[in-house]
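Quick start: what a row looks like.
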Amino acid sequence: MALTLSLALSACGGDASAEIENEPGDRPAQAASLATQSDLLEMSHLADIDHHGLFIDFGGPARAKYTVGNWGSGWGADGADGDVSFTYAGDTARVYFPVDASTELTLRLSVRPVGSHRMQVYMNGESIRGVVLEGDDQFRDYDVRIPAEHVRAGENYLLLRFGGTTVVDGANVAAAVGSIRVIEGAPDPNEDFAPPQWDTLVSAVELGGVERRALAFRAPTTLSWYLEVPAGGRLVFGLGAEGEGASMARVFVTPEGGERNEIFHARPGNAWNDQALSLNGYAGQVIRLELEVSGEGAGRVAWSTPSVMVEPPDVQERPEAARNVIVLLIDTLSAQRLRAYDPTSRVQTPNLDRFAQSGVVFEQAQSAENWTKPSCASVLTGLSPATHGAKTSEARLPDSAELVSEAFHDAGFATGSFIANGYVSDRFGFDQGWDSYNNFIRDGRSTEAEDVFAAAGDFIEQHSDDRFFVYVQTIDPHVPYDPPGSFLGMYDSESYSGRVQPRLTADLLEQAKRGRITFDQRDQTRLEALHDGEISYHDHHFGEFLARL
């Protein structure tokens, strides 16, 4: 039978002067013959914005990268108060942000009290100071000095604790946070602070009679992204400026563990100047890519459709249309454990490897959220978490959200789901459109891969003469890590009597995250072996499922 099976898992340029001939059009000329690998316009929410220091804007999608989404971070709903966008904070809220060097910082927090007038600030686990929040009806700035000894080069962890909460739309809210600025040293009282807002950062800009979508921002501002550079990668963009001025535009690349390199600079004019900069010297590396605007110009500098692009791949047409569809989602499996994404991985998954080699691998696929319910809701509806709304522990999908199962069912397909995670259940609205809906957690059945695959295979055999859509969600790489002994022995065959016991791994990891316990090297070896053994166990039964198909 014809079948489509898809798999889901739950970031020195020598041609700095290379220039493309300007041609009228809504994008740089060379973009027409290249394929986009990373579209920085579509990734604008992932950019770090440095404007007199790092600017973290709350109330929109840009802040999620600093709060690790919403899961367990203490942040709630986004909102707006006039021109100020904000995010509600519970009694404890966490923020993670990068700093280049261990140096004294000033954090400027824009906060409006809701349920509490007291805020305690912690940095990297150290108590810094308490802040009294004034008033009730407006946002105010509060400066908190962070001594250099509490600042790390790299990622830093900011914790805000509040004195109480009040209920807002059913949620416990302590305060509304509009923004956080991370300023090196003391703030400049004479600075002209006007950061680009996320909702206006991408604009339609007309230069020389040609209108293009562009990232548009004023000096002094730098936008930076973390990207993996593909072989043959080129940074393609058009550059121009609104109005008159003496702005300078620069592009910098910093490879992981390497030095910051300038690969382009120019004074933008009032017409599009199209560029294609080679990134091939960084192929295969993770880089920080920076677009910088400096100088005295008052107008915005525009970077039209900036993208990392490659030569388009050869694509073979499928000889026949697929008759049936199976989606397999492997809960909690990191892409870096698979050789399809990291050829150096030690994890043995021969069946997944063969499957990837014979299909299409999406190298830039990203989950819509960082935990089960909103992510799986997006997979099954095609909607963002902000649209489908299933973002909290108790939230359910609305009936108005159409699942892909409903579309297949209405088209005459037999539909079956075989799910080993309790969040993707009828309790939360995931039972829409299925002829056979099975949640192994809610039904009290074994969630082992061999049992989930067996049930899915039985359904497929029963409907082998029908067109069918089947969704399988396994959970073996999730805690607790308890693979059969033969799969554990693939990674650790030595005797072990330490604290890492299979059925206790969930509690042990939670205690480790809270700093209550530490693992020695032998413990860590056993822990990683248990985890990797789960993946290989799953792969074995995935192979049997493929053979049965």
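That is the whole record. The chain has ten helices and 28 strands. The domain at 52-184 is CATH 2.60.120.260 (Jelly Rolls).
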